[in-house]
Amino acid sequence: MSAFLSQPVADPAEAAALWAMRLAEGEMTPEQQVAFDAWLDADPRHGALLEETVGAWRAVDHYAGAEPVMALREAALASARRTLRKGKGHFPMRQVVSGLLAATLLLAIGGGLLWARMAPQVYETGVGERRVVALKDGSKISLDAATVVKVRYAGGKRQLWLEHGRAKFDVAHDALRPFSVAAADKMVVATGTAFSVELIKTQVRVVLYEGHVAVLKRDVANGPEAGRETPVEIDHIPAEHLLAPGRELILPDNSPARLAPRAAAVEPADPVRSLSWEGGLLVFEDEPLDVVVDRMNRYAAKPLVVGDAATGRLRISGVFRAGDTEGLVQGLAAGFDVKARTSAQSIALFAGAVPRRPS
Questions:
Q1: CB 127 within 8 A of CB 300
Q2: Parallel, antiparallel, or unpaired for β 179-183 and 157-170?
Q3: Residue 161 near residue 186, CB atoms below 8 Å
Q4: With a threshold of 0.70, does the pTM exceed it?
Q5: How far is CA 218 from CA 147, 221, 232, 262, 314, in A?
Q6: How far, in Å, CA of 159 to CA of 182, rounded?
Q7: Distance between CA atoms of 270 and 280, rounded to whole angstroms?
Q8: Opening angle at CA 23, ends 118 and 124, nearest 5
Q9: Pairwise CA distance, residues 221 & 240, whole Å
Q10: Residue 358: exposed, middle, or buried by beta-carbon count in 10 A (0-12, 13-18, 19+)?
């Protein structure tokens, strides 16, 4: 371990600067990794302090290669090394940190290293692909097709973001480290439970399988991670009080891009049916066709398109193999007289007369 990391550091800002320098040096030993993880977990502010350091690195990244900055960087590093050599393990910490901070803020390459370490891990599936991911805390994510989940464990928090698609989360219990999944302008928070989150059309859907979750609305007007959270309520009752195992919470995505908010609702959910996608089956029970199409398209080589609003409102029930768009089209034709128009890019569905192609 570098000498300056062998000393106890009471000031969190100083410790953050020292850990930043250690990370910039390269790979840590197992003992250093344990110490670093313990420092991050000791206080949520520690992760934030590291991120502030990263922000400073990124701010100077554009200018890091300029000749004046290169000269300043070398001078700062030389000063820090001299201070360490003179101290021989006993030195005024603030003096060393001031030199190290100067060097740190100018080491754009080191900043890139730490930023990569603090950036979320991305897990994703392509069209027709499913995937199960085991996380380092023992939690598990089951990703549906065409799904993206980002994961970041830092500062005593387990933070995840569902970018699109659907995923089921089996959360390892840890009361001191909440497990949060953000989707659109909503956030689901748990400590140890099993639930799924889905982004579909203009909705966020949460199915609870066991345990308990809190459901919050996020203020995302200034970015995906900005703003405060407030409890989601249905008729002035917190949604978490209504969402029991075996029930589904259907929430409108009321982010700024959406035009008009819609009411939230809690409905019964058959756990077997709601998880049929993990076994390659898509089961629909009185679902609007536009929702059915969205889910089928996660597996479709050639996507389906709902031709008009009336067609999208058709209520569909049935069981289909994932990717069997032909079976769905045939069922719609037999049951609803829905016509399909195939092009090179898609298959458009119409409940009425098929519009003529432009000449």
A1: yes
A2: parallel
A3: no
A4: no
A5: 21, 9, 9, 16, 32
A6: 8
A7: 17
A8: 30
A9: 24
A10: exposed
Q: For 175-212, how does the pLDDT look when each residue is reduced to its tens digit (9 = 90+)?
A: 888 999 999 989 999 988 999 999 998 899 999 999 99
CATH number of 121-270: 2.60.120.1440
Distance (Å, whole) CA 79 – CA 82: 5
Provide the token pair at 124.
Answer: 């994703």
Query: What letter represents residue 53's amino acid?
Result: T
Three-state SS for the chain is: CCHHHCCCCCCHHHHHHHHHHHHHHCCCCHHHHHHHHHHHHHCHHHHHHHHHHHHHHHHHHCCCCCHHHHHHHHHHHHHHHHHHHHHCCCCCHHHHHHHHHHHHHHCHHHHHHHHHHHCCEEEECCCCCCEEEECCCCCEEEECCCCEEEEEEECCEEEEEEEEEEEEEECCCCCCCCEEEEECCEEEEECCCEEEEEEECCEEEEEEEECCCEEEEECCCCCCCCCCEEECEECCEEHHHHCCCCEEEEEECCCCCCCCCCCCEEEECCHHHHCHHHHCEEEEEEEEHHHHHHHHCCCCCCCEEECCHHHHCCEEEEEEECCCHHHHHHHHHHHHCCEEEECCCCEEEECCCCCCCCC
Count CA atoms within 13 Å of residue 201 on its CB side: 20
Beta pairing partners, 247: 208, 268
Q: Each residue of 294-323: pLDDT tens digit? A: 999 999 999 999 999 999 999 999 999 999
Say how far apart CA 7 and CA 3 lie, in whole Å. Answer: 7
Tokens of 271: 């756990």
Query: Which amino acid makes up residue 23?
Result: L
Structure-token pair, residue 331 = 């069922």
Distance between CA 275 and CA 194 in Å, rounded?
A: 12
pLDDT given at position 74: 58
Overall fold of domain 280-350 = Phage tail protein beta-alpha-beta fold (3.55.50)
Question: Which phi-psi region, left, alpha or beta, contains residue 51 (left: φ > 0; alpha: ψ -120 to 50)?
Answer: alpha
Domain ranges within the chain, ordered by starting residue:
3-118, 121-270, 280-350
Write out the two tokens for 205: 């859907």
